[in-house]
From TrEMBL:
Name used for this protein in its record: Gap junction protein
Domain (Connexin N-terminal) ranges: 23-56
Taxonomic classification: Eukaryota, Metazoa, Chordata, Craniata, Vertebrata
SUBUNIT field: A connexon is composed of a hexamer of connexins.
Main location: other
Any one of the GO BP annotations: cell-cell signaling
Organism annotation: Ceyx cyanopectus
Homology family: Belongs to the connexin family.
Pfam families: Connexin
Alphabetical UniProt keywords: Cell junction, Cell membrane, Gap junction, Membrane, Signal, Transmembrane, Transmembrane helix
GO CC annotations, alphabetized: connexin complex
Length: 187
């Protein structure tokens, strides 16, 4: 259930960024209008207002939050493969070499041993415990989300103002710039 929830949340996050964010922010710099004719002033003011593209920031956030889950998934697959090779070698009655943990090393591990079923019973089924690794990736994801929320606040704030005043060279005086659709962007 947790895996399905993560996939659903990530798909919904990407859908919101692509379907709602892209149309809203695609013309952001073109619609950032400053009341000056000074060459370069509008570009400098826009760079001060938005040092990073919102869309790129949110896509980077989504990728960063997915990295711990991807690492955890690769770890689980690797450990399960090692465990399966070990179980198969145990059934075939061979000795596993230390340091070999890849399924490709299976012929080397088990050689040409014949499956022995002299015990009459099935092999014991062991269950791998990944709770520690899951907790680590969950803490990493939570810390990344918190870090990106703090970065969002320091870079952009949580509300988009209707007017942005800037005074920075090459602007010769204080210039008022107007942002398109500030209420919609704040929401």
């Amino acid at each position: 259930l947790g895996k399905l929830w993560l996939v659903l949340v990530m798909l919904l996050r990407v859908a919101v960024v692509v379907l709602a964010g892209y149309p809203l922010y695609q013309d952001e710099q073109e619609r950032f209008i400053c009341n000056t004719l000074q060459p370069g002033c509008s570009n400098v003011c826009y760079d001060l207002f938005s040092p990073v593209s919102h869309l790129r920031f949110w896509l980077l956030q989504t990728l960063a939050v997915l990295l711990p889950q991807a690492a955890f998934s690769m770890y689980v697959v690797h450990q399960a493969a090692v465990h399966l090779v070990g179980m198969q070698c145990g059934l075939q009655g061979c000795q596993a070499k230390k340091g070999s943990s890849s399924p490709r090393d299976q012929p080397e591990l088990c050689g040409s041993a014949v499956v022995s079923r002299s015990g009459g019973g099935a092999a014991k089924l062991s269950i791998l415990n990944f709770s520690g690794a899951y907790t680590v990736q969950l803490v990493c994801r939570t810390l990344l989300e918190a870090a990106f929320a703090a970065l969002q606040y320091f870079l952009f704030g949580f509300f988009v103002p209707e007017r942005f005043s800037c005074y920075h060279p090459p602007c010769t005086s204080t210039v008022d710039c107007y942002i398109s659709r500030p209420t919609e962007k704040s929401i």
